[in-house]
């Protein structure tokens, strides 16, 4: 019979796997395992294994010693009544339960393997296709018309003359203050109209920003690219 | 006949990268009697034999290619994934039945160290951590994912044989 048991450890996931192999080889009923036979064969198989990973070997040897112990306990007449001693019948029952449970999972693993094979023949999308959401139609094309005409009607700037005079921000702030305080509120475009050059526009912007910072005035814009209303800070 | 719900159902399945579950469908469809209507749509769609079919999997619905076109298309569209090893299958079987379960409990049943296998299953998204057990050391508890059901083409966990069924089968033999 031992010739039948020419096994390699590589094929076994662990001691329980080997045990189940032995049980099937001996055509034993899994619910009625002969501990004695199994223990002998288990130890035999272990001897034949030449090279073993130390960690795996430990698990196999642990099982071998457990089986040997259980076997010897079963051979001895029951004389001891100490509670600490293990009851061989009880122990065998627990051991059998463990084997049965493991063999159940082994069978389920086989079922899963089959399912894995058939399931892998269905191809499916792994990533969801997301539709681009852009607000392409929310803008009113009629808004373009005034912008276009503004652009066309914009006064062409005169020939560029390089001037030396520097616009003084502080001066301009004073000017702006006067300009603003004369009226309660004004539009930015009006301020731009008052200015003589691009440089002044830039300075006026700085002036206004400065005044906003000082909380003398405040600027409000209702929508993007809309008119900016400049008014006194309340 | 024009049926907006049916169109939405097929279109949503076409777009989705994972099975659509009933919770999602209830959001866009009239929930009353919804499952029956969906069953009809599926039958209608699958009867067309388009090479694409709708399958019930992982407690939801998924559009997949028919197995009949697999051989011709797998070279181009099939992902090359290694099948799970014997040890991995065994471990995931234990987790599927005993979940939520700790690594130690899995190892007690298998009789061998299972750290590597569990890591591998986590990487493949077949299992996930669902918390910690309230015992000394607070070990992690593992359970299977929806992808596990999808991977093995299971409608739900209850599709696996029960221990009792298996035991009866064994004793008869």
Over the alpha carbons, how many angstroms does the gyration radius of chain B reach? 20 Å
Count of distinct strands of chain B:
5
Count of runs of 4 or more consecutive helical residues of chain A: 8
Q: What is the overall pLDDT average of chain A?
A: 79
Q: SS-based structural class of chain A? A: mainly alpha
- The strands making up the biggest β-sheet of chain B line up spatially as 1-3-2
Q: Strand arrangement, largest sheet of chain A? A: 1-3-2
- The best one-word shape of chain A is rod-shaped
Q: Sum up the overall morphology of chain B in one term.
A: globular
What percent strand of chain A?
5-15%
Please count the helical segments of chain B. 9
Task: Please give the alpha-carbon distance between the first and last residues of chain B.
Answer: 54 Å
The percent of residues in helical segments of chain B reads 40-55%
CATH topology of the largest domain in chain B: Arc Repressor Mutant, subunit A
CATH C-level category of the largest domain in chain B: Mainly Alpha
Total separate domains of chain B: 2
Helix content of chain A: 40-55%
Mean pLDDT across all amino acids of chain B: 91
Polypeptide structure, described:
The complex is a heterodimer of chains A (234) and B (173). Chain A has helices at 15-25, 35-48, 54-75, 88-119, 144-153, 169-182, 188-194, 198-213, and strands at residues 185-187, 217-221, 228-232. By secondary structure, chain A is mainly α. Residues 1-8 of chain A have low confidence and may be disordered. Chain B folds into 2 domains: 4-77, Orthogonal Bundle (Arc Repressor Mutant, subunit A); 86-172, Arc Repressor Mutant, subunit A, CATH 1.10.10.10. In chain B, 50% of the residues lie in helices and 14% in strands. In chain B, the strands form 2 sheets. In chain B, strands 1-3-2 form a 3-stranded antiparallel sheet. Chain B is globular, with a radius of gyration of 20 Å. The model of chain B has no long low-confidence stretch (mean pLDDT 91). Classes of the chains: A mainly alpha (234), B alpha+beta (173). At the A-B interface, helix 1, helix 3 and helix 4 of A face strand 3, helix 4, helix 5 and helix 9 of B.
């Amino acid at each position: 019979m031992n010739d039948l048991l020419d096994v390699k450890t590589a094929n076994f996931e662990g001691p329980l796997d080997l045990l189940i192999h032995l049980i099937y080889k001996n055509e034993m009923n899994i619910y009625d395992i002969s501990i004695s036979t199994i223990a002998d064969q288990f130890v035999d198989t272990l001897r034949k294994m030449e090279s073993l990973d130390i960690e795996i070997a430990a698990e196999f040897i642990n099982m071998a010693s457990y089986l040997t112990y259980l076997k010897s306990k079963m051979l001895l007449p029951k004389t001891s009544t100490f509670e600490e001693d293990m009851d061989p019948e009880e122990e065998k029952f627990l051991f059998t339960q463990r084997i049965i449970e493991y063999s159940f999972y082994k069978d389920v693993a086989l079922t899963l393997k089959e399912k894995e094979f058939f399931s892998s023949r269905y191809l499916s999308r792994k990533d969801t296709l997301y539709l681009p959401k852009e607000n392409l139609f929310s803008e009113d094309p009629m808004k373009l018309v005034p912008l276009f005409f503004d652009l066309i009607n914009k006064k062409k700037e005169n020939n560029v003359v390089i001037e030396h005079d520097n616009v003084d921000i502080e001066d301009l702030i004073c000017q702006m203050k006067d300009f603003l305080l004369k009226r309660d509120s004004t539009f930015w475009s009006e301020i731009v109209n008052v200015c003589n050059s691009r440089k002044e526009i830039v300075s006026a912007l700085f002036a206004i920003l400065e005044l906003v910072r000082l909380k003398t005035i405040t600027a409000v814009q209702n929508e993007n690219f809309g008119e900016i209303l400049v008014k006194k800070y309340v | 006949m024009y049926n907006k719900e049916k169109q939405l159902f097929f279109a949503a399945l076409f777009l989705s990268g994972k099975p659509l579950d009933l919770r999602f469908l209830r959001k866009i469809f009239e929930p009353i009697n919804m499952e029956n209507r969906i069953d009809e749509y599926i039958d209608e769609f699958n009867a067309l034999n388009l090479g694409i079919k709708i399958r019930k999997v992982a407690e939801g619905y998924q559009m997949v290619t028919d197995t009949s076109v697999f051989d011709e298309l797998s070279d181009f569209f099939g992902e090359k994934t290694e099948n799970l090893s014997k040890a991995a299958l065994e471990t995931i079987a234990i987790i599927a039945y005993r979940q939520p379960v700790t690594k130690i409990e899995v190892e007690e049943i298998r009789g061998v160290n299972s750290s590597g296998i569990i890591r591998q299953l986590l990487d493949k998204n077949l299992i996930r951590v669902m918390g910690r057990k309230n015992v000394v050391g607070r070990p992690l508890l593992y359970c299977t994912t929806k992808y596990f059901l999808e991977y093995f083409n299971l409608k739900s966990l209850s599709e696996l044989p029960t221990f009792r069924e298996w035991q009866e089968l064994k004793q008869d033999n």
